[in-house]
Amino acid sequence: MKNYIKNMSKKDLVLLNIRKMYDSYGYKKISLPSFEEYDLYNENKDFIDRNVLTVMSPNGKLLALRPDITLSVAKKVSKDQSLKYSKIYYQENTYNLTKYVGYEEDEQLGIELIGKESTFLDFEIINLAVKSLDIINKKSMIVLSHARFISSIFQNFDLEYEIKEQILDCINRKNSHDIQKILKRNEHISENVKKLIYKIPELSGNLENIEKELLKYKINGNTKKILSELKQLNSLLMKFYKKSKIVFDFSVVKNLNYYNGIILQGYIEDFPNVILTGGRYDKLFEKFGVDTGAVGFAILTDGLKGYYKDTDKKDFEVLIAYDNSDFEKLVEIVNDFQKKGLRVRTENIENLGESDFEIFNFDEKYIFQNGELKKEE
C-alpha cells in the first residue's frame, strides 16, 4: 500500500487526502448515475447553464448525460431521506456540449451537507472548503458572498426581470458604470438605494470594513438581518483563520432562483481561475418537494491536471524486454521483482525498436532472451 501511494501522481494523492479528510468528518461517499431522465434537466433549465447531451434508451425514454451533479444529489436525497445521506461526498464527471470544443467531460470532487440553514452548518462547509484548498496549496483563499443579501436590496422594487438580470450581471462583472446607465432614469428607486447598488461591486474585503461602508446608506431590515447573521458566522471563522484566508465579496452573485444563502468560491496561488465553487441552495429542494435545504461545494479537479509537475515520477521501476523462449520463467522473474515492491512492465522485444524505450521513465532495463535475464547498464 505504501508503494502504491508513493507512486501516485501528485494530483491523485492530493484528491485521496481530501477524500480522507471528508471521511474523518463523517461524510459518506456516494455514486451517482451518469445518465438521468432528460426531464430532470428540462424542468430545471434555469439552474444549469450547459448544453445537454441526450440519447434515446431502448425502452423509448429520453436520457441525458449528467451536465450537473447538484441536481442528481437533490433527486437522490429526495427519494431517500434517511440520515445516512445528510453528509455526502462524491467524485464524479459532468458532461457538456460546447460550441468550439464539442463534447467535454469534467471531473469534480465535492460535498453536500443536507440540512436547513444555520450558522454552524455554513461554518462547517466553509471550514471544509478551506481545509480542502489547503491540501491543494496552503496559499489559498475562500471568497464569500450571500444570495439573500443581494436580493434583499432589490426586494421592494418593481424591476422587470430582464433589467434585474442585467444589473446582477453588471454586479458580477464589477461594472458600476453600466449599472448607473441602467438605473439612471428609474424613478421607482431612491437615490440612496441607487448609490448603494452602485457600491455593491466594490463591497469586498473583510466584513468589518464592508459594514462601515454599508452604514453610510439606509439599508432595509432584511439586509440588516443578513448582515448580522454574516457577522456571527464571520466571528466564528475568525477564531480559526486569518482575515487574509477568508474574504467577502458581494459582487459574487449566483442564480437567485435557486441559491438563497452563503455563496463561496475558492482560489489557489498560481492558478488563474476559480478552483472551488458552491453555496446554499435550499430552493432546489423545495422544487423536489422536500422540507430541507443543502449547502455544498465542488472542486473542479480537472483544473489540477497541469497544476502539478510529476516529472520526477517513474512510470515503473523495471522494464523487461523479452523473447518467446520461456514464458514460465519470465512470469517467475516478474513475480520476484513485484515481491520486492517494484513495478514491472514487460514488452516483447520483437515489437520494440531501441528508440521506443525512450518514451518510458524507469530505473532499470533488463533483456530476457533464451531463458536468461541480463541487466542493461
TrEMBL record:
Gene Ontology terms for molecular function: histidine-tRNA ligase activity
Positions of the Class II Histidinyl-tRNA synthetase (HisRS)-like catalytic core domain: 17-301
A cellular component term, taken from the record's GO annotations: cytoplasm
UniProt: L-histidine binding residues: D68, I69, T70, Q108, E112, Y258, Y259
GO terms, biological process: histidyl-tRNA aminoacylation; L-histidine biosynthetic process
Keywords, sorted A to Z: Amino-acid biosynthesis, Histidine biosynthesis, Ligase
SUPFAM superfamilies in the cross-refs: Class II aaRS and biotin synthetases
Pfam families reported for this sequence: tRNA-synt_His (PF13393)
Organism: Leptotrichia hofstadii F0254
Signal peptide region: none
Protein name from the UniProt record: tRNA ligase class II core domain (G, H, P, S and T)
